[in-house]
From TrEMBL:
PANTHER family: GH3 DOMAIN-CONTAINING PROTEIN (PTHR31901)
Any one Pfam family match given in the protein's UniProt record, by short name: GH3_C
Protein name per the record: GH3 auxin-responsive promoter family protein
Secretion signal span: none
Start and end residues of each GH3 C-terminal domain: 390-494
Superkingdom in the source lineage: Bacteria
Organism from which the protein derives: Winogradskyella luteola
Xref: InterPro entries: GH3, GH3_C, GH3_M
Length: 508
């Protein structure tokens, strides 16, 4: 009998029973007030007159009227660069203990995003919320005695001046509480290995020593790790070595494109729980099994705003026009894409995180990630967001009985001078008829998006497809950024980047 598991499960159920239903709108009002009060004496707070905003009859309106939108480049050039010169009390009291390095999906150059002790605590509290939400998934008691494989970036953080630097998953893993370390795998020694291939090799070598009940990490890298373990031990599937694996906590990107290839590595069904941890904070987590949408962490160090994601509000580089309207949680609608804006206990203010979301349940504050502001493809009016592309890719997987975990696209003129969408699909398809795939993809996109359908009848001439092995995408990421961690493939490329990609993909 799982005595410890029953105790832990009982505590989780008791905590859930005592928890009062959350009013997310009220929670957000309190968060905004806390942020403004705490930061009012910082250089940023004084410059933007937080004292006056707090005294205003409508503090939200005063907040939105008084402070512009920022993206990383703008806030770093105007404010955060001062932190690297030793200044304190810049956009948040004191100095950050960490900087999260993030190249994201946009290039080699790492952003350096401040992570304060308050943010570390906010992430910890969000993680506790996720644990207590497991009550809703009706997991057996013995699950709570199993080990958890957290595959992120290296926890061997780089010391620089008076702070540490690394990717957010490495920062989070280096701050796990002491009581959790017995459950945490691959353990501190392996987690500190910087080279991703070497780290995964050690995981494969030690895999038989662990009783893994849950996985956590970005889907593409989790899949490669699982495949390495399977190959190393000559297994049919991962359950041959980890028979008690029951839960996978996905994050970083939408799980949809990886669903089929992920489950192909399993010997039996597992529960997939989506999370949304970004370098700027723990945004949301799935709290119930009836949906794969995630609940915003509305009471935990982040204040959210939502800008309708429409072409007239977006600059060509993916940044927001300052006149774009911002909505609060009580003003949003379902079935509408929004650019997500956050203000946080790390000193981000009205910060464009770069993701687009839509609400599936406003009362529960539940969302889905629909794409990236920079990956919105609107050449000749096609208005394709990443979620529409993912939907079309899912149809292709079914139609051609394959998996397509990776893809990228560029809109450009072909040799005939007409505009085409050029797609590279990562798949192990044999004897591929790329023309047939292109026709099927074109039809799936027409079905998914009426704007695309209109564009295809006008200036968009057609679709061109090239199928390459998924490994080509991972090799590209390694060449341009680094394997593992928070690294993700760019779904949409500009022409210059796409030419580099084509040369790499076709000549590698």
């Amino acid at each position: 009998m799982a005595i410890l598991g029953n105790i832990i499960k009982g505590v989780i159920h008791l905590k859930a029973a005592l928890t009062v239903k959350k009013d997310h709108v009220e929670a957000q009002k309190k968060v905004l007030e806390h942020l403004l009060q705490t930061a009012k004496n910082t250089a940023f707070g004084k410059f933007y007159k937080f004292d006056e905003i707090l005294k205003a009859d409508n503090s939200f309106e005063a907040f939105t009227d008084g402070i512009p939108y920022f993206d990383y480049n703008k806030i770093n050039e105007e404010w955060w660069h001062k932190l690297h010169k030793g200044q304190t009390d810049v956009t948040w009291p004191g100095s950050p203990s960490y900087f999260a390095l993030s190249s994201g999906t946009t290039g080699k150059t790492s952003k350096r995003i401040p992570v304060t002790d308050d943010m570390v605590e906010a992430i910890r509290q969000a993680g506790i919320k996720q644990v207590f939400a497991l009550k809703n998934f009706d997991l057996p008691a013995d699950f709570f005695e199993k080990e958890i494989m957290m595959l992120g970036s290296s926890t061997d953080l780089e010391e620089r001046n008076d702070h540490l630097e690394g990717e957010i998953s490495g920062i989070s893993a280096s701050n796990i509480p002491s009581w959790f370390r017995g459950y945490y795998k691959p353990g501190e020694e392996i987690a500190q290995i910087d080279d991703w291939d070497a780290r995964v090799q050690r995981i494969a070598e030690r895999a038989k020593d662990w009783d893994i009940g849950a996985l956590s990490g970005i889907p593409s890298w989790i899949e490669l790790m699982l495949q390495k373990v399977i190959d190393y031990h000559s297994l049919d599937n991962i359950h041959d070595i980890w028979p008690n694996l029951q839960v996978y906590t996905s994050g970083g990107v939408a799980f949809g494109p990886y669903e089929k290839s992920f489950h192909a590595l399993m010997g039996k069904p597992v529960t997939v729980i989506d999370t949304y941890l970004a370098s700027e904070g723990y945004i949301a987590t799935q709290v119930r099994p009836e949906t794969d949408a995630m609940q915003l962490n509305t009471d935990n160090g982040i204040y959210f705003e939502f800008v309708p994601f429409k072409p007239e509000y977006i600059n060509k580089d993916g940044s927001l026009k300052q006149e774009a309207p911002a909505l609060t949680l009580d003003e949003v609608e379902t079935d509408q894409d929004y650019a997500l804006i956050i203000s946080t206990v790390s000193g981000s203010w009205r910060y464009l995180i770069g993701d687009t979301i839509e609400f599936t349940d406003i009362e529960r504050a539940e969302i889905k990630i629909t794409g990236r502001t920079k990956f919105f493809l609107n050449t000749v009016g096609s208005q394709l967001s990443v979620n529409k592309m993912d939907t079309a890719i899912g149809k292709l997987e079914t139609q051609f009985d394959t998996t397509i975990p990776e893809y990228t696209i560029c809109a450009k003129r072909g040799d005939d001078g007409e505009f085409y969408h050029f797609w590279y699909l990562g798949s192990e398809l044999k004897d591929t008829d790329e023309d047939a795939i292109a026709n099927a993809l074109d039809q799936a996109l027409k079905d998914a998006n009426k704007n695309y359908r209109v564009a295809r009848n006008k200036a968009l001439k057609g679709v061109e497809v090239k199928v390459v092995p998924p490994s080509r995408f991972y090799d590209w990421n390694e060449r341009n950024k680094k394997k593992g961690g928070q690294v993700k493939m760019e779904r949409v490329m500009g022409e210059d980047k796409f030419k580099e990609w084509e040369d790499f993909a076709n000549n590698n």
